[in-house]
């Protein structure tokens, strides 16, 4: 049976001299593992479309046991990401995250577009810390772990003058007027800019969720909150995240 899907190659493994297995992120079937025969050969038709982080239209033949790439046509190239170690490391973390969190052979809602937008923002020079935070928080929401950022969970206040606390464990906001010792678990008083960015990440259409400007202090707070929130939702640590942190000066 032949099927055609648009997707992004999120990992690849070489087997033998020229055999390649690729994991393709698709909306229709989640993660698909496919054999791409000869894709390592310099004259192969599949060389660029089956390279890592290639966004292509794949024509696949499906047998009972596996997919094989029949042909593939590149739609967009993210190859420039490979020229910058920090950008490549962050992309690898995103790839590891979606590979772990996206089920195989189950339809996904706009995951390919979300991943492509994240890579595009990395490639085009947006602050890596902001892209990382936006990816982590929005992806948590896409997986069904959206925090309630609409208003104070107790009184419904949207923006308390004395500030708003974020409670990561219960995934909600409590305004400073309502906050008391009963909320004694983990909590963080948000900079107004941090809350603005978090709301933008959660409530904007996908193409705008990475687009916000933020001062350095608030960006650091946003980064710490979103990373912890995502890792808590995924219940997993990612080696590629540690590698990324090793490449970026702010973590050294
Ligand atoms: Zn309140």
Describe this structure in words.
By secondary structure, this protein is of the alpha+beta class. It folds into 2 domains: 76 residues, Nucleic acid-binding proteins (OB fold (Dihydrolipoamide Acetyltransferase, E2P), Beta Barrel), CATH 2.40.50.140; 133 residues, de novo design (two linked rop proteins) (Up-down Bundle), CATH 1.20.1440. The chain has 6 helices and 9 strands; from the N terminus they run E-E-E-E-E-H-H-H-E-E-E-E-H-H-H. Strands 1-2-3-5-4 form a 5-stranded mixed barrel. Helix 1 runs antiparallel to helix 2. The longest helix has 19 residues. The termini are far apart. The mean pLDDT is 93. Zinc ion binds next to loops.
How is the secondary structure organized here?
Blueprint: E1 2-15, E2 19-26, E3 30-35, E4 54-62, E5 67-77, H1 85-101, H2 111-123, H3 128-142, E6 148-152, E7 164-167, E8 172-175, E9 188-190, H4 192-203, H5 216-234, H6 239-247
Parallel strand pairs: 3-5, 6-8
Antiparallel strand pairs: 1-2, 1-4, 2-3, 4-5, 7-8, 7-9
The structure holds zinc ion.
């Amino acid at each position: 049976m032949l099927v055609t899907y648009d997707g992004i190659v999120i990992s690849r493994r070489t087997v033998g001299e020229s055999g390649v297995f690729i994991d393709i992120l698709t909306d229709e079937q989640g993660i698909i593992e496919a054999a791409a025969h000869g894709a390592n050969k310099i004259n192969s038709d599949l060389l660029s479309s089956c390279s890592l982080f290639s966004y292509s239209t794949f024509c696949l033949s499906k047998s009972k046991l596996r997919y094989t790439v029949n042909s593939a046509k590149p739609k967009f190239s993210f190859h420039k990401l490979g020229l910058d170690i920090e950008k490549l490391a962050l992309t690898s973390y995103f790839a590891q995250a979606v590979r772990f969190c996206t089920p195989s052979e189950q339809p996904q809602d706009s995951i390919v577009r979300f991943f492509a937008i994240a890579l595009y923002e990395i490639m085009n020079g947006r602050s890596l810390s902001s892209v990382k935070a936006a990816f982590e928080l929005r992806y948590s929401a896409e997986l069904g772990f959206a925090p309630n950022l609409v208003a104070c969970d107790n009184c419904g206040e949207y923006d308390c003058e004395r500030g708003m606390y974020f409670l990561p464990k219960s995934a909600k906001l409590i305004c400073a007027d309502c906050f008391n010792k009963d909320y004694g678990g983990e909590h963080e008083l948000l900079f107004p800019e941090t809350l603005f960015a978090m709301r933008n990440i959660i409530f904007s259409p996908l193409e705008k969720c990475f687009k916000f400007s933020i001062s350095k202090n608030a960006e650091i707070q946003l980064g710490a909150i979103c990373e912890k929130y995502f890792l808590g939702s995924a219940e997993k640590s990612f080696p590629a995240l540690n590698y990324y942190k090793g490449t970026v000066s702010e973590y050294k």
